[in-house]
C-alpha cells in the first residue's frame, strides 16, 4: 500500500493562535445622576442647638418626638423662615435609618437606592445625593436643586471616568443629567426643570425616573392637616397636624385634582376649603399656583414607577370641618365634564395606589411602571430597584418592564404594645404561598434579640363584605411586646415583597381632642 504523501511544511507560516473573545464592555452610564428623596427623607440638623432634629437611628427618639410635649417644636417652620430667612435648619444627608410619621407611616432609608444607582454609574463621583429641608416650599428647594444639578454635571463632564465611559456608549455621547426622585422629590425635579432659574437644565437632562411622586397632590396631605379634628386621636396625629400647618412643603402636596365630593357634585379643593380643614390660606394659595404652573409641562425622558393595589385615599368629603377620606376617585370625559351615572351622581372608581399617592396622581403620562409596593418602599423594593437599573443603563428606550403581582397590604400606623391589632392583605385567593412577618427594626442601641413573628393569615369575611364580596381579602391579628418601630413584610415569592412600618407607643396619655 503506497505511503500517504506528507505535507510540505518547510515554507508554511505558523498559524496565529485563536484570538480570545473580545472583553465585555461595561454597561455603565456616562450620565451624571442626581438622587432626590421624598418628604421626610432627609436628615435635618438644628444649627442653633447643634443636634439632629429628624433622622436619628433610635426608635426611642421617634417616640419622644411624637408623644412628648415640645418633641417636634424645632421642626415647626417659623415666621422668619416663611419670609425666606433660612439657615436655622440644615439638611445634612439622605435618610440612613427608617423613620415614621402618622398617616405617611414608614419612611424607609435610601441606602439601597443609592447603592443601586452607583452600581450603574461610571464612578461614584457621577452620583449626587441631594438632601433638602422638606419643610420648605417646593419652589425654594427646586431652585437649590437646579443649581446643585448644574454644578454636578459640569464637574462630572471634566472627570476622567466620564471620558472613559463615553467610549462604551452609543455615539460616544457626552454625559447629561439623570434624576432619580422619590415622592416629593419628583415634584422638586419637575419644578427645577420647568420653573427653575436654569433655562437649559431640561435640555441637558437625558431622563427622569420618579418613584411614587404625587404630581397632582395627595388626599393624604389633607388628612394630615385635619387629623384629630372633632375626635380624640393618638398623640402623634395631633402633633403632626400642628407641625404640618406651618409647613409650606406639606401644603405643596395638597390635592390639585377633582377629589372633594359635595353631594351630587365633585370639584377641586380651594384655599378656602384648605382653611376649613385646618390648613393655611396663604400656603394653600401658593400651592395651587405652583401646580397650575407645572400642570402643562412634561418631564424630559420621564418614566414613572408607581405603586398599585394598595388601599389608598383618593377623594374626600368635608363634614363640619372634618375630613372623611374615601378610597374612590372621580374621572372626567375628554371635554372635561365629570363622568356621571344616569341619575346625575358622579361615577367613582377605585384605582388604588401605593397607600399614600393614588395611581392617577403618580403618572404624568402612560409611560409608567406599576408595582404592588407601598409608598415608602418604592425606593427600596427589589423590583423597583431593577427598574432603576434598567433606566440608568439603557442607551435606548426599550419600554417598561413587566409589573409584579397585585397584592395589597394595609396596617395601622400607630399601635399600643401588648394589644392585638389587625393587618389586612388584599388581592390574594388564600394564604397559601404567602409569608407575612412582623419584626422589630434593628437599631444601633439594640442590634440583637429583635422581636420577629409570623402572622397567621385567615379569610377576612368582614373586610370582604365591606368591599363588595370580592373574596380576595385576608387578615391577621398581631400584638407586639414593646414600644418601638416594627416592619410588617408580606412575601409571595415573586421577588417583590411588600413592607410597611408601624410605630408602637404607650397608651397614656391616650388621646388629644380638639374641636
TrEMBL record:
Biological process GO annotation list? lipid metabolic process
The record's section on InterPro entries has: AB_hydrolase_fold, LACT/PDAT_acylTrfase
Q: Which GO terms describe its molecular function?
A: O-acyltransferase activity
The protein here is known as Lecithin:cholesterol acyltransferase
Stretches with biased composition (Pro residues): 14-25
Q: Give the highest taxon in the source lineage.
A: Bacteria
Region ranges (Disordered): 1-29
